[in-house]
């Protein structure tokens, strides 16, 4: 489904009520992966800009997990993550896990993305996700030239299709068949990141029944960041999304209960965004704003770093029954 006008009520969240209209020529599309891929692929997304929207513009995106991205008929793209700038962007690239906001300067075209969960990373790559923290590399460097070429070819051949799901499901399904022995612990830690108030690494390790050393190995190898930063990022993003969608953006009562006060939240904002929340909200973010609402409607969670696999699975099953 290609969306230019977002009905926020479709997310079944009263905080997202209203209507969001994208500028002319801009489209945002999210699709669910197949039922067998739901734990490993957090979703497919397509951003497009043509006509007036194809002129040079800047957008911002929140820190998140790893993504595979392919551009089509795109002008020059420059991506900045913290102090690092990546330009020009390869046709097929891997965006590694990020702990800083992403600034994107684009010039029209299409970008197709595949969100990869930590469980997906365990099955797709022998490399540590930490190797790609806050980095963008050619996809061939991370997952091999053959896979990168096949992905580009498949998406080029299906460029006129209104959906990318069938092609990507077919490509990824055989690559995700082999289970990894660390998956039970990856799954448990991913679920723990969704729990409000859990921020202490020792407590997290105790809840998982492992040592802090083992937790650090799991976190860096498959999630790409140390446990403390992952816990802090999840807490901050939970709070920021509530703050962004609140009718009163001066109301700090919506932030996570583990924050001591508003100044504590603001310090985390500087860590992950490089600025205050109000400064971030004053920036032009048409793709991000649309993405938050469309993603919640289609995949159940407003942002990839807070992806709720149980909710995503329920939505996939609901979609299957409706077909």
CA(first)-CA(last) distance: 15 Å
Total E-strand runs: 13
- Characterize the overall form: globular
Main beta-sheet strand count, sense and barrel state: 7 strands, antiparallel
Strand portion, in percent? Answer: 15-25%
Share of helix, binned = 25-40%
Number of helices: 12
Estimate the mean pLDDT confidence. Answer: 90
Radius of gyration: 19 Å
SSE run: EEEEEEEEEEEEHEHHHHHHHHHHH
Residue ranges: pLDDT <50 for 5 or more in a row? 1-19
What would you call the structural class?
alpha+beta
| Domain module count | 1
Walk across the major sheet and give the strand order.
1-4-5-12-7-10-13
Structure explained in plain terms:
There is one protein chain. By secondary structure, the protein is of the alpha+beta class. The chain has one domain (1-323). Helices cover 39% and strands 19% of the residues. The protein has twelve helices and 13 strands. It has helices at residues 118-124, 139-143, 145-157, 165-172, 183-192, 201-208, 212-223, 227-245, 262-272, 277-281, 286-299, 309-322; strands spanning 2-3, 5-7, 19-21, 26-31, 41-49, 57-61, 67-72, 78-81, 84-86, 92-95, 102-106, 109-116, 136-138. It has a seven-stranded antiparallel β-sheet, with helices on both faces. A four-stranded antiparallel β-sheet has the order 6-11-8-9. A hairpin with a 2-residue loop joins β8 (78-81) and β9 (84-86). α8 (227-245) crosses α9 (262-272).
